[in-house]
Specification:
Length: about 300
């Protein structure tokens, strides 16, 4: 997949089959559109192109610094590449771009820059300044500028009945089964392992402490989870705690992973933690010994879940 960091950077000798959107989560609903994109290239006659934006438009237009997303931009790139998209344009979204009229966007971007043969889009897509243009306007522009418009029907979207909003809600509730079903993959967190207070090691549960660089990535509900990672090309299972470590009066949110039957130095390594199941909420125990007893129970529960998968 070729990645372009601006609309103006894009170049291709072929006409394109295009779709656009934020594609947060790259979930099963998105894949209906993206798979249509790859199928419409007519065995190489055209090239598939996804136009997406960063920062997320809501961060710019609504000043929402607390917007939480399902994917970091790097994670989104990885997911789109696995689908087989040939070209990805990540355009910097700002106030100036948001003021582009619908027809200027179609003419100057889609037609003149991307040379589109066809655009594949959801039935409810709106675009242009203040999002005033809709699918009917796009069809009219297609007739004027000689490109096809394929609309993803209401029925097709309803058949999947998935949205990034529903997935975010499931994650904040700890409903991993529903979130992962809608995503079509296990939700994951990516970060660098750093050295913590090593309390876990002192009670027989050494943990990898995860530092996440992107503060806009949605972290699921606080609590204990069953997880897995691929480390040195080997799948390793474990359990993860998200929370404030109330038993030892912790003050900052931490993400700590204890891997089963695994012993290696992970400090300063970047790891991806796939979240399989929510076990329980975070609790405050009267002593570290009682915490250890509960962790032993959590491990047995997690091992049963892993064995049943």
């Amino acid at each position: 997949m070729t990645i372009f960091n601006s609309i103006n950077d894009f170049q291709s000798p072929k006409k394109t089959i295009l779709t656009l959107g934020t594609f947060d989560g790259v979930h099963l609903g998105h894949r209906k559109i993206l798979e249509k994109l790859t199928l419409n290239t007519e065995n190489g006659k055209y090239e598939s192109l996804v136009l997406t934006f960063f920062p997320h438009p809501r961060m710019v237009l609504q000043g929402q610094s607390d917007v939480k997303l399902l994917n970091t931009i790097d994670e989104k790139v990885d997911l789109l590449e696995k689908i087989g998209i040939q070209n990805l344009v990540i355009h910097p979204f700002d106030e100036t771009f948001s003021q582009l009229s619908a027809e200027n966007f179609v003419k100057n971007v889609l037609v003149d820059r991307f040379h589109i043969q066809k655009i594949i889009i959801g039935h409810d897509h709106r675009f242009g300044r203040n999002r005033t243009a809709n699918i009917d306007d796009l069809i009219a522009f297609g007739e004027k500028y000689k490109f096809e418009v394929e609309q993803i029907s209401v029925q097709e979207i309803q058949d999947v009945s998935i949205s990034s909003t529903k997935i975010r809600k499931a994650l904040t509730e700890g409903n991993m089964a529903l979130a992962n079903e809608y995503l079509g993959y296990d939700y994951f967190l990516s970060g660098t392992v750093f050295k913590g207070k090593q309390l876990g090691r002192s009670i027989g549960f050494p943990t990898a402490n995860l530092k996440m660089e992107e503060n806009y990535k949605l972290i699921p509900r606080n609590g204990v989870y069953v997880v897995k990672s691929s480390i040195n090309q080997k799948t390793v299972f474990g359990m993860m705690n998200i929370g404030f470590n109330p038993t030892v009066a912790g003050k900052n949110l931490s993400i700590e992973v204890h891997y089963f039957d695994f012993d290696a130095d992970l400090y300063d390594q970047k790891i991806r933690v796939s979240i399989l199941e929510y076990l329980r909420p975070e609790q405050k125990f009267e002593s570290v010994e009682l915490l250890k007893v509960q962790l032993e129970k959590d491990k047995l529960t997690a091992m049963r879940h892993i064995a049943n998968q």
